[in-house]
Amino acid sequence: MKTKTKIKMFISIALVVLLVACSEADTVSNNISKAADSFEVQRRIIFFNGITDKYLLTIEGLCSLGNNDQPGRLSVTCKVGPTVYKKHFLGLSDNVSFLVEQTDAVKADPFHYRILFRPESIIPDIDLQVSK
């Protein structure tokens, strides 16, 4: 068998295993998370004091939650223009919690996984800083 045919067969089998192993809800949830991380989902993030029930901060827009934050910290990155972003860092404590609300419905296909390739992640854009 040719190498290309073997690769295609392996990918097909892997996709079938992934689709069978996950429920429809798991697939849709995963796809919505990927859409949110690509700034395609409107969200409202509310930080509140669990003792006083007071809102401390509300962030709304096309926002992605930090995926690699340290315990007790949360970063929120929001797209505010075609190529303009704002990043917020928040500290969480035993009485400060947050809620993330998806404010608009989005379409998500329960039968297809969403895989994103970003060339800039594979081949980084390098900035050189010259010290004086």
Mean pLDDT: 83
End-to-end gap: 60 Å
Classify the helix fraction into a percent range: 25-40%
Elements, N to C (H/E): HHEEEEEH
The general outline is: extended
Task: Walk me through this protein's architecture.
This protein folds into 2 domains: 1-35; 38-104, no CATH class. It is α+β, with helices and mostly antiparallel strands. It contains 3 helices and 5 strands. Strand 2 and strand 3 (73-81) form a beta hairpin. It is extended and about 65 Å long. Helix content is 28%, strand content 33%.
Name some characteristics of this structure.
132 residues, alpha+beta, 2 domains, five-stranded antiparallel β-sheet, 3 helices, 5 strands
Please render the helix and strand layout as text.
Elements: H1 3-21, H2 24-37, E1 42-49, E2 55-65, E3 73-81, E4 84-91, E5 96-102, H3 119-122
Antiparallel strand pairs: 1-2, 1-5, 2-3, 3-4
Question: How would you sum up this structure in a few lines?
Answer:
The chain is of the alpha+beta class and 132 residues long. The protein is built from 3 helices and 5 strands; from the N terminus they run ααβββββα.
